[in-house]
Amino acid sequence: MLVILPLLLVALGGGAIYLNLLSESEAEARIHGSNITSLLSTHTNEFISNRVDAVELLAGETLLRNSPLLIGNDEPKDLFEARLLLNRYCKTLNASLCYIMNVKGDAVADSRPPETSIVGNNYGFRPYFKQAIWGESSIHLALGVTTKKRGIYFSSPIISAHNKIVGVAVIKFLPAPIEQRFAEVTGFASLVDPNGIVFASNQPDWLYKSLFKLSPQRLKKIAESRQFGDQAPESLGFTVDSDNNVSGPSAQNHLLEQVSVSQLPGWSITYLYRTEHITSMEHPNQGIAALSIIIILFLLTLFAVKQLYSRLVETLRSNAQQQKDLERSEHRLQNFDKVSSEAIFIHNSEGIVDVNKQAEKMFGYTHTELLQLKPDDFFSAESLPVAMEKVRTQSETPYQATVITRDGTAIPVTVNGKAVLWNGQKARAASFRDITRRIEYQKRLMASEDRFRQLSDLVAEGLLIYSENKIIDVNQSLCELFGQRREDLLESDLSELFSEQSLTAINNHPDTAAALELSLERADGTLFPAEITTASMQFDDGLFIVLSIRDISRYKEQEEHILYQAQFDLLTHIPNRFLAKDRAEQAIRNADKHDGKLALMFIDLDGFKKVNDSMGHEVGDQLLQQATRRFVSCIEKQHTLARHGGDEFIIIQEDIADPTDSEIVAEKILQQFSNPFSIENKQLIVTASIGISIYPDDANNYSDLLRAADIGMYKAKHDGRNRFHYYTQEMNDIATRKLALDNSLREALQNREFNLVFQPLICNVKGQPKVQGAEALIRWTSPVLGQVSPVEFIPHTEQSGLIIPIGRWVLEQACQQAKRWVDDGQEDVFISVNVSPRQFKGNDLLRDLTSALESSGLHPHHLNIEVTEGLLIEASPELNNTLQLITDMGINLSMDDFGTGYSSLNYLKKFPFNNLKIDRSFIKELPDNSDSAILVTATIAMAHQLGLSVTAEGIETAEQYNYLRGLRCDRLQGFYMGKPVPANEFSFELAP
Questions:
Q1: What is the gyration radius of the CA atoms in the chain, in angstroms?
Q2: PAS domain: from which residue to which, for each copy (predicted)?
């Protein structure tokens, strides 16, 4: 018993000593870890601060401020000089890359050789460019877009001599110098971003991974930012308890120290280090239980004592190693002058025991003078109580204070206090960092925020900023949009504004995607369509999302209106041609599916154009509306009525049993249109011409079916209007011929397919017949269609407008030929040319006549222009003026086809004609038809009385020729005297 008791006493005493040693060792280890972390943070800040100054120095270089490269001029000399400067900076600073960008973000010069140059690449999306272009220097840590390597990008605006931002200077550094410092420590040291993503570390496999688990939403936003590549970062899976003990797959039983990097807001130095004694203290009660058993069993007591002794030896060895680490920490503290830009005071209960050179520089005192100062000598009256309280409580929380320098200048500083060893004694280190520039920046930032607030309230779109589904801020437009007060929304949950479905859509919406369209609800319960765009913004205190919300109610209404306009006719409110096509194609598919038929009716209103032109478009519109109502009354609900355009309508009859079923509808329409329309107290007669085609009998697709119905409609018009006509193959042949004519005519003039022939005009000269002139007639030889009669192709040229360039060509060729005849001795010759009514529209004809005469050199009195009575039916003052100008030029005017109109005598009196041409329909019956003979005789006599000459055309017999000569007809034309021939075959000699 006496033996056991001493052993028990030894065991208990040893345990007490052991626990005391463990407690002191842990405290010293924490101080040691804190010192190392602070030292690494100081070095990182120093590294960054120096390089901020460097990039600002580069941006201030006169060569860059005045560089033509930044304004789009890329002369080789300018590029060479810029590269020399950038290379010099890169080599001096041991930087990875130096380059400059214009205001668009395009790299215009860099320090790399041409084969790896980034010139031409655009980096306008990078945050360091965006911040610099707004006038602030920037630091951005990211993975290179091109190199896929880590880089610390320092940027600064390039400001011209005119105080205008003209570009951005960038210097890229590798994180190697920071990681070299990390490699000197025994624990796990890392530089991490605000999300806990490792950017630099002495553990290479930790790079781009998060220390702690992040939410899926946060991971998605990080990937979308592309700061560390396109993939979401993996997690190292660390967890931290309230005592800063860290556990995880890569580190067990470690302590955590974190110190912010003031130069990188939100970033920090993270240091994980191991304490060997922590494991033994996890279950202290087990030791007590073991000691209790020793009382009973001596052998176990001896074993416990032995184990205690072994553990004690191990602990003492660990303490010795930690003591060495503390001494190394002390040595590093003593060398702060070499790495720190902060003023550092080492003090204990007796006062200040040491300061660094930066302290002398900041406060303006000598080293000796600083050692004699008391806190109230350099802290302001407001800051002194705070500083003393921090020392009293041994607080290590950074705080802001104001210090007074020797010359009385007040400097705002950030103070960091830490427990340290100094000359083997416990002391406290206080670092003072001048934050004057930061305060100024914060003031500018606050002013900027005020301006932003004012500006955002002027923006029509609603703006909302949130983080972790909590609303941080909104603008006035958003309050008005939702009918809510700003104070009610701030700090509230997003679910107050958005439904669960809307929230899911917003949270899953990438920043780079197109705007999101959602239906949102106002405070009064009304719904409205909204367009939402999202933008992620990383600040010191976390990730924030900005929503821009625009009420698109009016846009949607306009969209619906546009959609309606795209499918319906706004005048008649029935489907338009596009919707008709869609419905017809659906009907065709149904017919194919059920082996059925459908009819398509193409309807044109007869006489509508005359009403529209004479009574105005307003009356025309009313007429179309009334016609639509009549069409509707004739069809079934399942049929489709559509306005194809103008006065053309379409009716689609689905599922007809027999093609004759459409006759019933056609007859109803004709019956309805037999009654006059009453508009503005006027009775208007407008009828309908209807063409009908049947699917699949007449066509196998909509386009051909519509074309077939159109052909049927034109046949109905040709047969007298106010009727319907089914499509036939014969009609198709005619339409095909018409289409071929139209297509070939468009290239005929360019391909020189036209030629002129000339028919002689016989005049009575001193009682003797003589060939004195010719009528120029056009002929067309098509390589596709062969010889085409003018009777067939001239109407097509008038409809298409091709008569204008073709008529111009005829005038030019005719005048040139007449000039050649004049030059050959035919001094009294004249050339007669037909002019279409289309050529009289505008001033083209006068210009064409002038051009033809001037280019050929022909005198105007050799030219005779023939116009038809059709031109004169709708005569206007402009037409009369044009005809007068033509005669004033010296050109002769002839009325063609005289006798076929209704006001021929009036025309002779009203217009300045020199000649009239009797239509061939009167000549062909001479001399046997007495009526024709009387009319021709009277016409010639009347014309001579009016001072006009007379031309008779279509003379084919000797009897006709002799009869007209006997009536003293001035000019004779016809096959009897000569057929139309080419110029080289034309003769001025009369045929025997």
A1: 51
A2: 448-523
